[in-house]
Design brief:
It is built from seven helices and ten strands. By secondary structure, the protein is an alpha+beta fold.
């Protein structure tokens, strides 16, 4: 079922027309002095018809729509704002077309590595097809909530919380890619309810409390290892540059054993966490 436009017109001219019709019918019934019954019956019929026609008036606020049904049949949707008149004796349900937010509950989910994480999201959505929103699902707002939480659980279970391998997508490091996947999944599920997903965002993403401390120590250890690796790479470059300068300028000739000793000493000096104490050799190079 798709939304279509219901017949409707401006309500103010219709009010004037119905009042004029009712007044003329009353005047005709009262003015029939010789034989009042035909005029009176005509006036009663016209007044009843006018009263029935008055049930077709409706007020449509801005960014709202009225879904019109008659005896269980969908007639169309009124999107024109203001005081409107449509088919009388019809049911009209109001559907908001405004942009709305849904803030999901904080969910505990196992990520792709089996670690429990807490995740919550915020989605921005609006109704674009009022017929689908009313007739295709039982309660479209409840449908949005359930589908959002289901999509968030699915998204969180597909990726690890943190990156363990080079080039791996994770929930923490690749927020844009993860949100794009969540947006596509939600749009596919909510399209049948006539809802357009405008934006998705993660409101909370963290390890569950029972493993948060262990994971923090793991992250700190990884940071220390990365820093040490960077220090060693820089120290090796500095030692290589020093040996090249000594050889190029012919300051001293070192055999392989002395080069190894110099490399060891320089690496100790450059990679040590504490300041090293120099030792002055007053003898020869080989003593």
């Amino acid at each position: 079922m798709k939304e279509r436009r219901a017949f409707n017109t401006n309500g103010i001219p219709m009010v004037l027309l119905l009042l004029l019709t009712a007044a003329s019918a009353v005047w005709l019934g009262v003015s029939s002095f010789e034989d009042p019954w035909p005029g009176l019956m005509y006036a009663i019929v016209v007044l009843l018809a006018a009263l029935v026609a008055f049930s077709g008036f409706s007020i449509v606020p801005p960014n709202h729509a009225r879904v019109v049904t008659f005896l269980g049949r969908y007639l169309g949707t009124i999107r024109d704002n203001g005081f409107r008149w449509t088919f009388p004796l019809t049911m009209r349900r109001t559907v908001s077309l405004r942009v709305q937010n849904f803030d999901s509950n904080t969910l505990k989910v196992n990520d792709a590595m089996g670690n429990p994480v807490e995740v919550a999201s915020v989605i921005v959505w609006k109704v674009v097809d009022s017929a689908k929103a009313v007739f295709e699902v039982e309660d479209y707002q409840n449908f949005i909530q359930i589908q959002t939480e289901t999509a968030v659980r699915h998204m969180a279970s597909m990726y690890p919380y943190d990156t363990y391998e080079t080039g791996q997508i994770s929930l923490q490091a690749n927020a844009e890619e993860v949100m794009a996947l969540l947006h596509r999944d939600l749009q596919d599920q909510l399209e049948q309810a006539g809802v357009e997903v405008l934006r998705t965002q993660l409101r909370r993403l963290a390890y569950a409390p029972e493993i948060a401390g262990e994971m923090l120590r793991r992250q700190q250890a990884e940071a220390v290892v990365a820093a040490r690796r960077r220090i060693v790479e820089g120290a090796v470059g500095m030692v290589d540059h020093a040996l090249e300068l000594l050889s190029a300028r012919k300051i001293v000739e070192l055999d392989e054993e002395r080069k190894a000793a110099m490399v060891s000493n320089l690496l100790v000096v450059l990679c040590s966490e504490t300041r090293t104490q120099p030792v002055v050799n007053t003898g020869t190079l080989y003593t």
